[in-house]
Amino acid sequence: MFWLTLLVIGGLFVYRNYDYLRVNFWPLVEQKIAQVTSQKDQTADSTNTAPVGTTEDDAVTPVESIVAETKLSNVYYYVFEDNAPASVRNVFEEAVVIYNETGLVELKSGTPADTENKITFGIYTNEEAANQNGLSELGRGGPNIIKYTGWTSYVVNRGSARLNLAGTNAVRLSVAIHELGHVLGLAHSTNRNSVMYPIDQGKTGLQDVDIRALQTIYAN
Fold it and tell me: I need a surface site. Which of 4, 141, 169, 193 has the fewest CB within 10 A?
């Protein structure tokens, strides 16, 4: 009887204070859960003319594991960090057009709602990483999967792609395409024909192996 009475009292409290709880309490619970279930993957990329490991010319581009494990909307909104120069903005805008042309994703300029995917484009400067072992780190990119399991449940990707201004010729379209690919869920490939090959090949067009990987993520 005690527990039944307690349950009834608790139910009445929630009923009478629904609007207050919805505005002030439940968003905090959702945010806390979201922080716990957030998964982030940032991949640093380099450039050199030497091959890396074995090359499989017919290998399908892999998918980032944290993206393969979830279902994402194919619509993204993108923003630029304030310190991103015009040259960086231009190459990322060009990369956006190339991915949109596949018809598999829809990348739009603008600020998303909480339940929508977001991409942040920007820059960083890392002199040490730009000159390690004869390689030059050109950029970093990756998805940031956040799963909300509170009052409402949804999954969003809040990934980012940045170019290393200390890297040799980092501000170029091939690098922007590669880093944006990471955000959308594409992982490094052993296929030198792929834009996701970890050593920059100067490729500015998505290959069939890249498009097929995007299909596994976003095609309904």
Answer: 4
